[in-house]
């Protein structure tokens, strides 16, 4: 039983004659007759009665046609999906990312990607760096977005996308807001709002202040940069933070200032040790295409 035979049978049943089937399939009448004859032999029961060189469908053929039609529709769906996958228009991507990138970077990337690839499903999980690495290792996600700092993990492939530098968030009326760049020694005595202990970024910032030789006064610790940004808006304190935080604050209430010495890290794509699928490669292209906008906003250098 061959696909072309199924198609000839469907065409005959749809158009009611060999002539109509031949025209619909754009082949000769003898070819249709041969296909129908072979198909009848392969099914093992009579599909047609023959009167005066005409084929008339049997009741069994009428019944069997519904099954053939479902099979043809299923095959066409397979063809459609295959073309869609080949053109990066179908598939699924599971993304795990640190909350700051879920709240900022990924929003525009996902929106633009979905506009171009509406049939690709996307799931996003916000998690810390350790959780993201675990999800990649256990195949619970396909792509991860986060910061590298001094990360070394033999089970994860890290593809740097851009470099970021920490900024100091402060209320617009703060005494240091008039400076474009602030030396960390000028921050002595300030109340700080910072990420919780254990965050890779918090660890990096703590190290810089240890080198400076003076302790910070931590007023509030929080798990996410979004919470920290809101607290700075409310004059709870200042924060040494990810520059993406500037996208979350009310610029009428908070300003972001560069720091010296600089605290730098890479924003990167994290994946397992495997070849990316075609649709994942397309998503990576959209991640890279968004970088100029992030650079213009001061989130990356």
From TrEMBL:
Keywords: DNA-binding, Transcription, Transcription regulation. InterPro entries: LysR_HTH_N (IPR000847), LysR_subst-bd (IPR005119), WH-like_DNA-bd_sf (IPR036388), WH_DNA-bd_sf (IPR036390). Residues 1-58 form the HTH lysR-type domain. The keyword Secreted does not apply. One of its GO terms (molecular function) is sequence-specific DNA binding. One of its GO terms (biological process) is positive regulation of gene expression. Signal peptide: none annotated. This is LysR family transcriptional regulator. It comes from Thalassospira tepidiphila MCCC 1A03514.
